[in-house]
Amino acid sequence: MKNLTDSFVYLGHLPSAGSFGFNTDILATNLINLSVVFGVLIFFGKGVLNDLLDKRKQRILNTIQNSEELREGAIQQLENARTRLRKVETEAEQFRVNGYSEIEREKLNLINATYRTLKQLENYKNETIIFEQQRTINQVRERVFQQALQGAIGTLNSCLSNELHLRTINANIGMFGTMKEITD
After folding, report:
1. I need a labelling partner for 11 at 20 to 30 A (CA). Which of 37, 53, 57, 179 fits?
2. CB-based contacts of 94, cutoff 8 Å, min separation 6
3. pLDDT, tens digit, 9 for 90 and up, residues 33-81
4. Where are the beta strands (DSSP E) in 16-122?
């Protein structure tokens, strides 16, 4: 590096041959060259740079606008979802309340139906008991009557003679005939 700097310094000590010469001061020449390059870039590149920056700015604005539109759409969808959720929650609460009411109503209906069925069974049981009692009483009466009749027939047969027996039968037949005429 030192050799390179020495060679430039050596060129700087060369005597000038005329009006044209090289400026061997590196720092001075670099600053001049850079300012010329920057000046040319600014003069000619200003439009290009402005166009690039404007396009970049427009892309950023479009991206922001698209993001805002998407955000608004997402907010609207969120509000719609919240509205649907509230509606579904309300309906679920109504179904729950109605379900409990329906369950209670069905339970009460079942209890009432069971009570009515038990009442009917109790009535059928009582009617059956009364019917069986009447039937048993009628059977007992019939047997008592048959036994009394057999006893009376046996007593009459032993006490009555054939002639008395025929007169009694004729009298009874006459009584039955009279009763039959009265009932007709």
Report:
1. 37
2. none
3. 888 888 887 888 788 878 888 999 999 999 999 999 999 999 999 999 9
4. none
Tell me the two tokens of residue 136.
Answer: 């048993």
The amino acid present at 16, given as its one-letter code, is: S
pLDDT tens readout for residues 93-143: 888 888 788 888 888 999 999 999 999 999 999 999 999 999 999 999 889
Residue type, 168: T
Residue in the structure block whose two tokens are 């690039």:
52
Give the tokens for residue 51: 């166009």
d(CA 22, CA 75): 70
Q: 10, 22 in Cβ contact below 8 A?
A: no
How far apart are alpha carbons 81 and 182 in whole angstroms?
95
Residue with tokens 């009515």: 116
Q: What is the DSSP letter of 15?
A: P
Distance spanning both ends of the chain, measured CA to CA: 163
What is the distance between the alpha carbons of residues 5 and 24, in angstroms, rounded to a whole number? Answer: 11
Token pair 């009874």 in the structure block, residue: 172
Q: How many helices (H) does the chain have, and how many strands (E)? A: 3, 0
Dihedral, 55, 60, 66, 68 alpha carbons, nearest 10: -140
Q: How many residues does the chain have?
A: 184
